[in-house]
UniProtKB/TrEMBL annotation:
Protein name: Indoleacetamide hydrolase
PANTHER family: AMIDASE AMID-RELATED, TRANSAMIDASE
InterPro entries: Amidase, Amidase_CS, Amidase_dom, AS_sf
Entry-linked SUPFAM superfamilies: Amidase signature (AS) enzymes
Length: 473
């Protein structure tokens, strides 16, 4: 192994070392628990740590391996997940006060798949209340803090997932993405996050925010780690009728094709919900230049006007969230944070005809994007977050409700939410640091079910750069 501290190794390195008998799952789990002891007080990424349960699982995984049974490519690897995935018989809060002691009646499909692959569960992670919020604030459980700078946001709503992976407390974590909530914390915390194609990963047994826009996916330290994790959790699920029956590729086996001859469209938008900060634009341009030196053919592309698409997404998420939360809002509205409740209440005042129109427009938006920005290219490269990371205080809409603050918070999802509406895959990869020392993330967007292409490009980029190897101190 490269590091004396096993917690600093990548997921695939740990998984392969366990499989090869060079280390044990117990050793990897103990290393992660020690890292949690060090970093949890700093970043508040965990809501619950299952110390004894995790060690018992790790001992069981080691015993199985000694008996010649390897469950799968993640056998013995410690992970933790956003507290919106149900584990039968255990509390699942969804980051809320309302579900503070709610016990799940079923286990989420993705957790069952990770169990089958041999994952050790360290616990469950902090998140924005009911996955509503792009910054990582949570008034009920305490705000999650960025491991690179504890005054700055983690990105949301999968705040604990981004922070725990970024701080090397876990090797991988599940997040969810309705408007950017995997890619935003990945970009903000300097890790890799994949929002796969709509229907690629089951959402059964997970708290819903918007049935039309929700995606489930992994956050990891490297693209290779991410590819391995997605291969395990992806696939059709009878318990989620929206999942696709398309076969799941071995994403990790397809990583090493390089980018020579691939066509990448560079998009540096100058308008939108938030203007592109020059240092973010420079980092994305540098990433494009790096891919060009590797043999990719990089050309400038223009994104379509996302205004109508963004508004359609807002209609969908507000209406669907209002429908889900109506019983709680009628009985205990005071248990919501103000900024969460007000966003959901807006859905009660949107006409059904407007909601239906938003759904009907989706196919038009997909055709428009594929025939414009993606015409003649294999992937589009653009920023994940268009500005340097602000502080937790600057973006606290619970205490600061002015137009400038609300505009800044809305700007977080300006370049991510469109791809939830389109349902196409988008990958966030670390590509630099801003002048405050906080990470910058680039976003790779591809055609439906072409996650393998995005992984291939991201992996080649990581082979030529070292941003993903840097870690907070």
């Amino acid at each position: 192994m490269r590091n004396d501290d096993l917690a600093l190794e990548d997921l695939t390195a740990i998984a392969d070392a366990i499989a090869g008998g060079r280390i044990t799952s117990v050793e990897a789990t103990e290393a992660c628990l020690a890292r949690i002891d060090l970093w949890q007080p700093r970043v508040n990424a965990f809501l619950r740590v299952y110390r004894e349960k995790a060690l018992a699982q790790a001992r069981a995984m080691d015993a199985e391996l000694a008996a010649g049974k390897r469950r799968g490519p993640l056998h013995g690897v410690p992970m933790a997940h956003k507290d919106m995935y149900y584990r039968k018989g255990e509390v699942s809060t969804g980051g809320s006060k309302i579900r503070g002691d709610w016990v799940a009646p079923v286990t989420a499909t993705v957790l069952n798949k990770l169990d089958a692959a041999g994952v050790v569960e360290l616990g469950f992670l902090n998140m924005a209340e009911f996955a509503a919020g792009p910054t990582g604030h949570n008034v009920h459980h305490g705000h999650c803090r960025n491991p690179w700078d504890q005054t700055r946001v983690t990105g949301g709503s999968s705040s604990g997932s981004g922070a725990s992976v970024g701080a090397r407390m876990v090797y991988g974590a599940l997040g969810s993405d309705t408007g950017g909530s995997i890619r935003l914390p990945a970009a903000a915390c300097g890790v890799v996050g994949m929002k796969a194609t709509y229907g690629r990963v089951s959402r059964a047994g997970a708290v819903a925010r918007s049935w039309s826009l929700d995606h489930v996916g992994p956050l990891t330290r490297t693209v290779r780690d991410n590819a391995r994790m997605l291969s395990v959790i992806a696939g059709h699920d009878p318990d989620d009728s929206t999942t696709s029956e398309k076969p799941v590729p071995d994403y990790e086996a397809l990583l090493d094709g390089g980018v020579a001859g691939l066509r990448i469209g560079l998009a540096l938008p100058t308008d939108g919900l938030a203007p592109l900060d020059p240092q973010i634009g420079a980092a994305i341009q540098a990433a494009a230049d790096a891919l060009g030196r590797l043999g990719a053919k990089v050309s400038t592309v223009t994104l379509p006007d996302f205004t109508a698409l963004y508004r359609a997404a807002e209609v969908m998420v507000k209406c669907e969230a209002a429908a889900m939360h109506r019983p709680w809002m009628e009985k205990t509205p005071e248990l919501y944070a103000n900024q969460v409740r007000t966003r959901m209440e807006a859905g009660f005042f949107i006409p059904a005809t407007q909601y239906i129109d938003a759904l009907r427009l989706r196919s038009h938006f997909v055709k428009e994007f594929l025939s414009s920005a993606m015409d003649g290219v294999d992937a589009v490269l653009l920023p994940a977050i268009p500005f340097p990371l602000p502080t937790i205080e600057e973006t606290d809409t619970e205490t600061k409700g002015g137009p400038a603050v609300l505009k800044m918070v809305a700007g977080f999802t300006g370049l991510t939410r469109p791809f939830n509406t389109l349902g196409i895959p988008a990958l966030s990869v670390p590509c630099g640091f801003d002048t405050n020392g906080a990470p910058i993330g680039m976003q790779l967007v591809g055609r439906p079910f072409d996650e393998a292409m995005l992984y291939r490009i991201g992996h080649a980029y990581q082979g030529a750069t070292d941003f993903h190897t840097r870690m907070p101190l």
